[in-house]
Specification:
The protein is of the alpha+beta class. It has 5 domains: 2-118, no CATH class; 145-304 and 326-381, Cupin (Jelly Rolls, Sandwich); 387-423 and 432-506, no CATH class; 507-693, no CATH class; 722-829 and 872-972, no CATH class. It contains 36 helices and 31 strands. A 9-stranded mixed sheet has the order 1-2-13-8-15-6-5-3-4. Strands 17-18-21-19-20 form a 5-stranded antiparallel sheet, with helices on both faces. The protein has a 4-stranded antiparallel sheet with strand order 7-14-9-12. Helix 5 runs parallel beside helix 6 (90-97) and helix 28 (776-783) runs antiparallel to helix 29 (789-798). The longest helix has 20 residues, at 705-724. The radius of gyration is 31 Å and the shape is globular. Its main location: nucleus. Residues 232-395 form the JmjC domain. Belongs to the JARID1 histone demethylase family. Keywords: Iron, Metal-binding, Nucleus, Oxidoreductase.
Length: 977
């Protein structure tokens, strides 16, 4: 790394006299001279520090470019692998991160100087690093200022309408006096806070190190404490402030603190730092209170993209990405270009003042000196529908909400007309072919012609259509060709689909007074109105009562709409698209048939099937077609939409076909994005008997320790019964995965088989896992926080290169022995029903929607588990897979409950021969290692659940640490000792 500094020798061009100055750039860069400095500097940020160090020796101009502090800041933040501590320069800080700082010595004692080279780009950047903002205060701003404002005035004049700067809301806050750099440094010197910067890595700094940094730094875009987890790092800070009375209506407060999306931030930053142009996530509103320093704000109303900002709308997932200059760069380079009528709404915020930013408003903040502030985002009655709208899948409406009519392409009008007249008469899917569209852009100042940029009000080919930030107007741009309930949501959504449905449900139960508003939001995000129409058609066909008005919202958090009627429950299959839905229903019906013809007591704990079939929309009306899972329904056979993998078997859409379907789509996420959201005109459904009582999710926090242990025993017993239930015999033409397991005589005939004809059948399951393994690093990186980046880097070292080591078939001279069991795969807290002990039948009729158990006369009621629900995710596989959702979701990692479960389960998870291999050091047969690998390869982000339950594991440096903490108890399981 010594070569970073250069020494003036080598192939550096000789220096020339001042009288014969020559452009050094041409000789020093060779063919690269055709690239502007901005492009060259961008390319350098993609290199490793070592490559930049080597390149700095190539020529004098490369030496200049490769020793820029902004470059080394970017390089350092991209390689952070330890606690960040600024070492006086970003190059030294980067070398410290690489453990080579002590070896680094300057080859020359002075910085090399070269004449004959000029760069306006580098000069502008250097100027921004050292400029002072003393003259940036804007005292005559045009944001309205108020004090002593009443809640009624705020709601009438500002809430959801326009920004306002309010004084006097924080007069009684302790933070007004205690939140200074000096006092915070005394109390939180060694506390680590999250840093906001343009890097994919999460960076933390001790507060004392951050204070040291801001006192000596000269960065264009300085590091900025922007910590949404500050309450965990320093919980006493929550005592120093309270939510102002104007903003206390927050619909997210029905969620537990660890369930709601990030909503509050501690913000500390030096002069020149700030937040570049953005719209707050999820179209939430926000309040921001300044405790120390001064901030300059600029705001534009929804749909009006600021000059210099580029909005990208991604077709694949509807995500909206923003390209924006830094806050300081925008004020220096773009603001002066604006005509008076194009300038933003502005103000300078002073200590003690609170600014309100409504939903959808663009805003940019520049710190004029070191500032300390707190901010919170919230959802209330004024923006609830906008938040729900922003959750809906598709891309048109997301771009329109942020970029206005500039987000429309040439087919904008046709899209509006199509959506306005859309109805459920088509199973086709409009395949929008654009991959990424730049909907709003302005060249940088260096490349503009006379400073002229696109007029912000331009909307070519859009006639007289006027943009309106009105939910009815914006809803016209929803992609109604997608089934919103089943489509993948944007990765940029502030909350996931499961969490969103849980949120709506808790609002529906907890705040019945706003159900009309909740219903409007559910219709925007989930097409709830259409699903309600469909379930009523199914009920009418069977003469079942329709869900009443107060139960028209689908229940649960699953990916299929579920409705409660008087004595039955109707589920409409939509997850994964029509083909996946048919295999889901077909497998569940096949399972019920086998269960009802067995002697297993499991049947007593699973709701019986009352009806099943396919709902079809054709020629403007619905038609119900009953189907018991056998054969191929005529409507499917005649549609040519789906060809069953095996037509000749009794259950062509049963578990063997489903397993092959899983193989076809394994490791191909593009399948989901291409097909799951396709609008369908057919929906499989099932009607089961309604269980009385409450779901475990509603009782969890109120169950006694004894009841929790009884639940663990119940699950162990029923999973024992499930895993010993005989599986259907495959057709000779089926090629399906056989999963290794115990081969003892006592278990034969209960899901275990001997087969000498096709030992290669297990390869299919191995291929499924290997496909998932092939892109595991990419998938984990996309999931990101809270999965530690260090572990993501090591995941390929931890998982076997070939997953077949988990399924080495045990052979002897005459036979191949394999285990094969039913797997529920989704035993979670909302799929377990519980009944109150010692109560009358009339009490058992109590509506399940009550969210807490009744407590009367100071006595807690006792509950026992009664049913396991939702078998649409049934498959065949290794029994240990069912432990993942049970331990993580139901038991929440409680080892005591896991032990109780295992004591009741009483079946070995591994064949006895595996113990011999383990004794010889074969890790693939160690139960904790095997299930940890399955967690990593799981289709859903169970790792996120692990690192949320065991927060201490976020600092783990090896997967072995995680394995031992989460699953180590399995290695002592007596079932295979």
């Amino acid at each position: 790394m010594d070569s970073v500094s250069g020494n003036g020798s080598g192939d550096f061009p000789p220096e020339t006299s001042a009288s014969v100055l020559k452009d050094r750039r041409t000789d020093a860069l060779g063919d690269l001279r055709v690239l502007p400095d901005e492009i060259l500097c961008t390319i350098l940020t993609r290199l490793t520090p070592r490559d930049v160090a080597r390149l700095s020796c190539a020529s004098s101009v490369m030496y200049i470019l490769c020793n820029e502090e902004p470059l080394w800041m970017s390089l350092c933040l991209s390689i952070v692998n330890r606690q960040l501590e600024y070492k006086g320069s970003w190059k030294k800080t980067a070398l410290h991160q690489l453990d080579v700082l002590d070896m680094y010595t300057e080859a020359c004692k002075r910085t090399l100087q070269f004449d004959g080279f000029n760069s306006l780009f580098l000069y502008r950047r250097l100027y921004r690093c050292y400029t002072s903002l003393n003259g940036f205060s804007f005292d005559d701003g045009n944001v309205e200022r108020r004090e002593n404002i009443s809640l009624e005035e705020f709601r009438k004049d500002y809430d959801g309408q326009k920004p306002v700067l309010i004084d006097g809301l924080t007069d009684k806050w302790p933070a007004r006096k205690s939140w200074t750099s000096e006092q915070l440094a005394l109390k939180y010197s060694d506390t680590k806070f999250r840093i906001s910067q343009r890097s994919s890595k999460k960076v933390n700094m001790k507060f004392k190190d951050y204070i040291s940094y801001i006192q000596i730094q000269h960065d264009e875009d300085p590091l900025y404490i922007f910590d949404d987890k500050f309450a965990e790092a320093a919980p006493d800070l929550l005592k120093d402030y309270s939510v102002p009375y104007l903003f206390q209506e927050d619909y997210f407060d029905v969620l537990d603190i660890d369930q709601r999306p990030p909503f509050r931030w501690l913000i500390i930053g030096p002069e020149r730092s700030g937040a570049s142009w953005h719209v707050d996530p999820g179209l939430t509103s926000a309040w921001n209170t300044l405790l120390s320093g001064r901030k300059r704000w600029a705001l534009y109303p929804p749909g009006r993209v600021p000059l210099g900002v580029t909005v990208h709308v991604n077709e694949d997932d509807g995500d909206v990405n923003i390209e924006t200059p830094s806050s300081l760069q925008w004020w220096l380079d773009f603001y002066p270009l604006l005509a008076d009528h194009d300038k933003p709404i502005e103000c300078t915020q002073l200590p003690g003042e609170t600014i309100y930013v409504p939903s959808g408003w663009w805003h940019c903040v520049l710190n004029l000196e070191t500032t300390i502030a707190v901010t919170q985002n919230f959802v209330n009655s004024k923006n609830f529908e906008y938040v729900c709208l922003d959750m809906a899948p598709g891309f048109h409406h997301k771009g329109i909400c942020r970029a206005g009519l500039l987000a429309l392409d040439d087919g904008g009008f046709e899209h509006i007309e199509k959506n306005s007249l859309s109805h459920e008469n088509s199973s086709n899917y409009s395949d929008h072919t654009r991959k990424e569209k730049r909907v709003r852009t302005c060249q940088s100042v260096e490349n503009t012609d006379n400073g002229n940029c696109t007029d912000m009000s331009s909307c070519d080919s859009l006639g007289d259509l006027e943009y309106s930030y009105d939910v009815n107007f914006l809803a016209m741009f929803l992609d109604n060709e997608r089934d919103h309930y089943s489509s993948l949501w944007s990765s940029g959504n502030c909350i996931g689909q499961r969490e969103f449905r849980d949120w709506l449900w808790k609002l529906w139960v907890g705040r019945p007074g706003i159900r009309d508003l909740i219903w409007k939001g559910a219709c925007l995000a989930l097409n709830a109105g259409k699903w309600y129409e469909r379930v009523k058609e199914i009920c009418a066909f069977y003469d079942f009562p329709s869900p009443p008005q107060d139960e028209k919202l689908p229940v649960g958090t699953g990916s299929n709409p579920v409705y409660l009627m008087d004595d039955c429950v109707t589920k409409i299959f939509v997850e994964g698209g029509l083909e996946a839905s048919l295999y889901g229903l077909g497998t569940e019906l096949e399972f019920h048939h086998l269960l009802n013809n067995s002697t297993s007591s499991l049947k007593n704990y699973i709701p019986s099937v009352l009806a099943s079939g396919i709902l079809v929309f054709e020629n403007g009306s619905y038609r119900v077609i009953p189907w018991d899972g056998r054969g191929i329904p005529e409507v499917i056979a005649s549609s040519n939409l789906i060809t069953p993998l095996h037509k000749e078997v009794d259950y062509p859409f049963g578990v063997w076909g489903k397993k092959q379907f899983e193989y076809q789509i394994a490791g191909t996420p593009s399948h989901e994005s291409a097909n799951c959201g396709k609008s369908s005109s057919m929906w499989p459904y099932i009607v089961t008997k309604r269980c009385r009582g409450k779901i475990f999710a509603e009782l969890r926090d109120n169950l006694s320790s004894k009841d929790a242990l009884n639940l663990a025993s119940f699950l162990g017993e029923q999973l024992h019964n499930l895993h010993l239930l005989p599986v259907p015999s495959p057709s000779p033409n089926h090629s399906i995965p056989m999963v290794i397991g115990d081969c003892t005589e006592s278990l034969q005939g209960n899901g275990f088989s001997k087969n000498t004809d096709n030992p290669a059948e297990s390869e299919l399951f191995v291929r499924i896992l290997n496909r998932r393994r092939s892109n595991v690093t990419k998938r984990l990186s996309e999931w990101g926080d809270p999965i530690p980046s260090k572990l993501i880097e090591k995941v390929n070292e931890y998982i076997p290169d070939d997953l077949s080591v988990f399924f080495d078939i045990f052979k002897n001279e005459t036979e191949v022995c394999r285990s094969l069991t039913w797997i529920h795969s989704d035993v979670m807290d909302d799929n377990i029903y519980m009944t109150e002990n010692n109560i009358s039948d009339s009490c058992m009729e109590e509506n399940m929607r009550v969210t807490r158990p009744d407590i009367s006369n100071g006595q807690e009621h006792s509950w026992h588990p009664s049913h396991i629900l939702d078998f649409s995710d049934l498959t065949l596989g290794e029994p240990i897979l069912d432990l993942i959702p049970i331990h993580l979701d139901v038991f929440r990692g409680d080892s005591r409950l896991l032990k109780q479960f295992l004591d009741s389960y009483k079946i070995p998870f591994l064949r006895k021969e595996s113990l011999k291999d383990e004794a010889q050091g074969n890790r693939s047969d160690q139960l904790s290692y095997r299930i940890m690998c399955y967690c990593i390869l799981y289709d859903e982000n169970v790792l996120g659940a692990i690192f949320s339950l065991w927060k201490e594991l976020r600092t783990a440096t090896t997967w072995e640490e995680v394995e031992e903490k989460v699953w180590g108890d399995l290695n002592n399981y007596a079932g295979f000792s």
